[in-house]
Amino acid sequence: MKNILITGGAGFVGANLAIYLAKHLENIEITCLDNLKRRGSELNLSRLRAHRIKFIHGDIRNFEDLTAVGAIDIIIECSAEPSVLAGYEESPLYLINTNFTGTVNCLELARIKKADFIFLSTSRVYPLRTINQLKYIEKETRFELAQNQKIHGVSPHGFTEKFPLEGTRSLYGTTKLCSEYLVQEYSQMYGIRSVINRCGLITGAWQMGKADQGVVVFWIARHIFGGPLAYVGFGGKGKQVRDILHIDDLCELLIRQIKTLDTHNGQIYNVGGGKKLSISLQELTKICQEVIGKQIRISSVATDRQADIPYYVTDITKIKKAAGWTPQKSIHSTIQDIADWIYAEKQNLQEILT
Ligand SMILES: NC(=O)c1ccc[n+]([C@@H]2O[C@H](COP(=O)([O-])OP(=O)(O)OC[C@H]3O[C@@H](n4cnc5c(N)ncnc54)[C@H](O)[C@@H]3O)[C@@H](O)[C@H]2O)c1
């Protein structure tokens, strides 16, 4: 019997992962801990209950909340203030205390319980200015990376783990990078087996998407519920590009990591959909129109938003090889999944997603 603690376990990744693990692994006991800070996380509680997953209403900033959890063999750290805009026009303390100090508390728990540690980090650890200064080609519907970049760790296939880390990256990215360093130190010093997954854009049903986090869900929700929508930054044409990873593909990867942790111990991986699953906002609009059968007005704001980048696509070569894993869900089916979920839960979601 393995006891798995998922922090942020009522959030988008945490709750979907808990349910996926409950469905696909035997002899496990899952506990989800969450302070329900993210609006909409409360909707996941009945889903967790339906899968007999234990829920603890707790805060990773309070070590006492963590020590109240019983036996633990693996901690999967999925809690966060995940917005790249957090701290810009407000105090950064919640962000820092959760994403950094809270993660240190989780590591302390891992040390005491001799538990393995899987950390959900972010592609936002890569610095803004270096990304913005890369050479891009403007195509009809999207930006593309040019061949032969001067910076190493990047090619038309995307960003690898070797992309340089010097420079600033937003407070969100910085708290995550600081946590990564602590994960590595704890791992080395106390013999905790650990994996760091630097995730790009993850999406799917039960993501409580907002303009600053969960943009794909936000975009689809606007097409369904209406409300203002704009292409912001980089000329206001919606040519900025991200790769999309469906939550089920992430869960499948995490199961593989749990099952073969010795193989992944000490590794850092860039995790995402990869080049094949990349899309610009303009292209996303087109698929939304096809799936939802509606065209809505999208305005244009040329000025760049804080901490924004024109392009990020994950080079998934390393993780594909290490885990024998390839994302399965197409962009179209991911968008269809999200639209189906919004229609099915329309009453509960209208207020949260608008
Ligand atoms: N979704 C993405 O596209 C994405 C991309 C890269 C990295 N990540 C990382 O994956 C992890 C999960 O993100 P998500 O998309 O599920 O976000 P989410 O906001 O849906 O989930 C995070 C959960 O953490 C909880 N939480 C916040 N502060 C807490 C605290 N102090 N104590 C306990 N719980 C707290 C929230 O209530 C929420 O339920 C995060 O670490 C995030 O940084 C997500």
Structure overview:
- With about 350 residues, the chain is an alpha/beta fold.
- The protein has a single domain, classed as Rossmann fold.
- The protein contains 13 helices and 17 strands.
- Strand 6 and strand 7 form a beta hairpin.
Itemize the secondary structure elements and their pairings.
Elements: E1 2-7, H1 12-24, E2 28-34, H2 44-50, E3 54-57, H3 63-67, E4 74-77, H4 93-113, E5 116-122, H5 128-132, E6 136-138, E7 143-145, E8 154-155, E9 158-159, H6 171-190, E10 194-199, E11 201-203, H7 215-225, E12 230-232, E13 241-246, H8 247-259, H9 261-264, E14 267-271, E15 278-280, H10 281-292, E16 299-301, E17 311-312, H11 317-323, H12 331-344, H13 346-353
Parallel strand pairs: 1-2, 1-4, 2-3, 4-5, 5-10, 10-14, 11-13, 12-16, 13-17
Antiparallel strand pairs: 6-7, 8-9, 13-15
Helix pairs in contact: 1-2, 1-8, 4-6, 7-10, 7-12, 10-12
Bound molecules: nicotinamide-adenine-dinucleotide (NAD).
Class in CATH? Alpha Beta
Number of strands: 17
Topology as a string of helices (H) and strands (E): EHEHEHEHEHEEEEHEEHEEHHEEHEEHHH
Which cofactors or ions or other ligands sit in this model?
A: nicotinamide-adenine-dinucleotide
Q: How large is the share of residues in beta strands?
A: 15-25%
Biggest sheet layout: 7 strands, parallel
Global structural class:
alpha/beta
CATH homologous superfamily designation: NAD(P)-binding Rossmann-like Domain
* Low-pLDDT residue spans: none
Separate helix tally: 13
> How far is it from the N-terminal to the C-terminal residue, by CA?
42 Å
**How would the global form be characterised?**
globular
Q: How much is the radius of gyration in Å?
A: 19 Å
Oligomerization state: single chain
